Amino acid sequence: MIQNASELIKNFQHKRVEATQLEELQTELLDESTPSLTYLILTVASCTIATLGLITNSAAVIIGAMIIAPLMLPIRGLAYGALTGNILLFRRGLIAIVFGTLLSIGLAYCIELLVGISTFDTEVLSRSKPTLLDLGIAVTAGSIGGYAKVKPTISGTLVGTAIAVALMPPICVIGLGLAQTNWSLSQGAAVLYLTNLLGITLACMLTFLIMGYSFIERAGAALFWTLLLTGILLLPLSVSFAQLVRQTNLESNLKNALLTKTITFERMELLKIDANWLTHPPQVRLIVRTKETVTPKQVGLLEKFLQKEMGQPFTLIFEISQVKEVRR
User: Fold this and answer.
1) What is the pLDDT of residue 164?
2) Among 196, 224, 195, CA closest to 209
3) What is the pLDDT of residue 231?
4) Crossing angle for the helix pair 168-179 and 183-210, nearest 10 degrees?
5) Tell me, what's the pLDDT at 111?
6) How far apart are CA 302 and CA 207, in angstroms?
7) CA neighbor of 291 nearest in space, from 252, 261, 250, 320
8) How far apart are CA 53 and CA 51, in angstroms?
9) pTM (2 decimals)?
């Protein structure tokens, strides 16, 4: 087994591709990383669709924006340029990414000012709390993107769908948060975007290296800095992951306390429960169906009960679907 592992390492170290393939890859990446009118149109279209999908809380619309998002192309160029020391390719990719990012943030900001939605739903809020799970998604997606570039038999559409999910939506959330001066929302989305950007870049670099498209000696410095920047993000991502686990447990305990320890919920049906942890205290939206009305006094008593039961305050918001009986 040790001998097989040694042979595998030797094969990896001596794995190289032909010079023509390297030149062809660099030419393609340079073309993809150069900002153009097509890149501008696709970025505007993707950002507009994603922003409207986030505002309307429509996952289907957001997926539509993911399919056409062009940001993956310059990221691959950036990764390969850093890996091989190609300054021109690295600079072109960086300019395209910065341009596309700032353009998308500004466009999302303007759309929110025009629409004027005061509250956001789950599609927006879910992108304000990045965790280690998001880094795992970004690394996996980046590996697919890098592998697909050196294996033309893989569909480009499949890659775009897999990658863009991690890029455009958080950029739009940054703009939405800035438009409402919601700094915690914009900050969380910015961390998510940086996590995805660094995760995808690192995964692309490693994929290009493993496939023999760069010398490991030349790639050492670029890999070190990318790993260092990604490692810096591990601390906030780990904290957010721990908070996610705690919040999930709190939501489960909160739902259980309402259903089993209160008289109010014996007379109504709880359809859905959503918690917004960005507010202080957290807002819990309860969608219920009942024949009876819910009074502000009942809501106040339930909030006092939950504070005593859970050890922290909550703001309860009821959305009531009234059940009306009709007889002949």
Assistant:
1) 55
2) 224
3) 87
4) 160
5) 92
6) 54
7) 320
8) 5
9) 0.76
The dihedral region occupied by 160, where left means phi > 0, alpha psi between -120 and 50, and beta the remainder, is: alpha
Q: What pLDDT, on a 0 to 100 scale, did the predictor assign at position 324?
A: 73
Enumerate the β-bridge partners of residue 289: 269, 321
Instruction: Give the chain's length.
Output: 328
H helical segments located in 151-215 = 156-164, 168-179, 183-210
Find the helix or strand (DSSP H, E) in which 90 lies. Answer: helix 87-115
Residue whose C-alpha is closest to residue 141's, from 169, 162, 127: 162
Residue 134 has a pLDDT of 87
- Count how many Cα atoms sit within 13 Å of the Cα of residue 193 in the half-sphere of its side chain: 23
Instruction: Name which of 38, 168, 53 is nearest 111 in CA terms.
Output: 53
- pLDDT score for 249: 79
C-alpha closest to that of 194 among 149, 231, 219, 220? 231
Q: Which residues, other chains included, contact 213 with Cβ-Cβ below 8 Å and sequence gap of 6+?
A: 17, 21, 22, 25, 80, 83, 84, 150
59-68 and 37-55 are packed helices; what angle lies between their axes, rounded to 10 degrees? Answer: 170
Mean pLDDT of residues grouped by 10 in the chain (328 residues)? Answer: 51 61 82 88 90 88 77 87 87 93 94 84 83 87 81 61 70 92 90 91 87 74 85 88 81 77 76 79 83 82 82 84 76
